[in-house]
Amino acid sequence: MQLRRNVLTRRTAAALLLGLAAAGCTPQPAADRPAPAAFNDTDTAWIQLMIPMDERAALLTDLAPARAGDPALAAWAKETRKRLGDELVDLRELLRLSGVPDTRPHEGHTMPGMVGLDTVRRARTVTGEGFDRLLAGSLRAHLVQVRMLCASERTAGSAARAKDLAATIERSVAERITRLDEVA
What we know:
This protein is about 75% helix and about 0% strand.
């Protein structure tokens, strides 16, 4: 059983890292000091990817109060924005604890589930139903991808705090998807 779990863990870690490599990204090692042993490459890759994913989603949710046509969707976006802010605080603290510098290796990238800057620009030009469709579709894709990334972190990560945060985010994402299904 332990051997099987180890093989699955390595496969999941390899899949996550291959996905990052395919997107032109690699985990960034600390320049001056090695990361504490508690953080492996999966942990740091997950943290470094989650930060820009959540930052981009936050850009879109910030537009909802002025642009959404459906008050229930606007309220959902407001709550989602609060949760994204809380996640970002926790993710940045994990990055600090990992010892890996904030080199922003995913800056400017567009990956599955990451709200594109072109989407944010487009969202700034529409209101009402058009904005609602853009918001709901983009954030649904974001939440689905985040859920998969968190599951990979829980399986292949080694830092207990990162794995715990991934589990917390995964639960929050499940709640947000359920709520989005109700309002959109």
